[in-house]
Amino acid sequence: MRDDSGVLKNDGTINHRKLGRLISTIEHDRQRATELLASMVSDYPSIVIGITGPPGAGKSSLTDGLIVEYRKAGKRVAVIAVDPSSPFSGGAILGDRIRMSSHNTDPEVFIRSMGSRGSLGGLAPASMDVVSLLRNFNFDIIIIETVGVGQSEIDVMKAADTVLLVLVPGMGDDVQALKAGIMEIADIFVVNKADKDGRERLLAELQMIIELNRRQLDWIPPIVETVATERKGVASLVEQMSQRADFVKKNRDTIWRPRVESQIMQMMQEKTGSDILAIFKGHSIFNDWIERILSGELNLYQVLQKIESHLKISWRDENE
After folding, report:
1. Sign of the CA dihedral 221, 83, 197, 195?
2. At residue 221, what are phi and psi to the nearest 5 degrees?
3. 75, 187 in Cβ contact below 8 A?
4. In this predicted structure, what is the pLDDT of residue 153?
5. Residue among 7, 22, 77, 15 nearest 47 (CA)
6. Per-residue model confidence as pLDDT tens digits over 203-247
7. Residues 225, 198: contact at Cβ < 8 Å?
8. Per-residue pLDDT at 132
9. Is the Cβ–Cβ distance between 78 and 141 less than 8 Å?
């Protein structure tokens, strides 16, 4: 890949400061982000891993352990640690980089905290764009560690080759609440803090869910037990992810076609929505509607009907 950004140094290592600046551009300037990413094309075979699960499951400790294992194998690793956003600045407020600070001096590890910016699926659009950006700088492993908000935590599926759902013993009804969509999220189940009471019950529940869905699955999610703070089970987890990577490689079209479709639809929704909003907000009719609602002359749904009457979207093929 041709790199005019200066992120890749002459010796092939990463300039962390310049990469950080590019990510800041993507976060704060959506138009520039599109232009930047449209100019980049890479066929580097990065593996994207999503790590999700409820708060307190030990996702950051697990991520830290995975970094250690992949660095032992000589892999270049990037981590996007998605935190709940500050309601004032929109920025990340937990700072997973603190929890992974032991890797700060490793030039082959890049860690960036990003805010979810209120996205119910856990990932802001900018986070998805950063994954695309990182693919261009020869990262072997890209890890997305998400906020962890239960059933709504599914956006990571659109970006990741493999999704780890991290659970802990003693969750009780939390697993029951996840059951409806659990098989749609997890490629690998990770039972972390496996030295805690309740381990057997959690393993049995997960195994039951897998058995109930086995016939409709092309990939049977394995269950891996870990104690991430002690690095126990992490090497076994890496081996399971290697098997998953082989499966994805052999079945890439089947796995990625619906994900690419979903990504395109999300981008279309974001782009058309922001453009339409900008058009209406820049017109005097927008303030007129507000005044008429406040005066009781119109209600919100009557305004919606007016918006629909103003919108007419048509498709024109430039080749025609």
Report:
1. positive
2. -65, 125
3. no
4. 57
5. 77
6. 998 998 899 888 888 999 999 999 999 999 999 999 999 999 999
7. no
8. 86
9. yes
- Answer yes or no: are the C-beta atoms of 165 and 190 closer than 8 Å: yes
What is the 3 state secondary structure string of the chain?
CCCCCCCECCCCCECHHHHHHHHHHHHHCHHHHHHHHHCCCCCCCCEEEEEECCCCCCHHHHHHHHHHHHHHCCCCEEEEEEECECCCCCCECCCHHHHCHHHCCCCCEEEEEEECCCCCCCCCHHHHHHHHHHHHHCCCEEEEECCCCHHHCCHHHHCCCEEEEEECCCCCHHHHHHHHHHHHHCCEEEECCCCCCCHHHHHHHHHHHHHHHHHHCCCCCCEEECEHHHCECHHHHHHHHHHHHHHHHHCHHHHHHHHHHHHHHHHHHHHHHHHHHHHHHCCHHHHHHHHHHHCCCCCHHHHHHHHHHHCCCCCCCCCC
Strand partners, 82: 114
Residue keyed to tokens 């093929």: 317
- Residue among 258, 251, 226, 259 at smallest CA distance from 240: 226
Nearest to 53 by CA among 116, 124, 111, 122: 122
Tokens of 209: 């869910």
d(CA 137, CA 156): 21
Nearest partner of 171 among 144, 155, 147, 190, judged by Cα: 190
pTM metric for this prediction: 0.82
* Residue ranges of domains in the chain, CATH in brackets: 16-250 (3.40.50.300), 261-310 (no CATH)
Q: Write the burial class of residue 211 (CB in 10 Å: 0-12 exposed, 13-18 middle, 19+ buried).
A: exposed
Angle at 131 between CA 75 and CA 232, to 5 degrees: 45
Query: Strand order in 47-52's β-sheet?
Result: 109-115, 77-83, 141-145, 47-52, 162-167, 188-191, 223-225
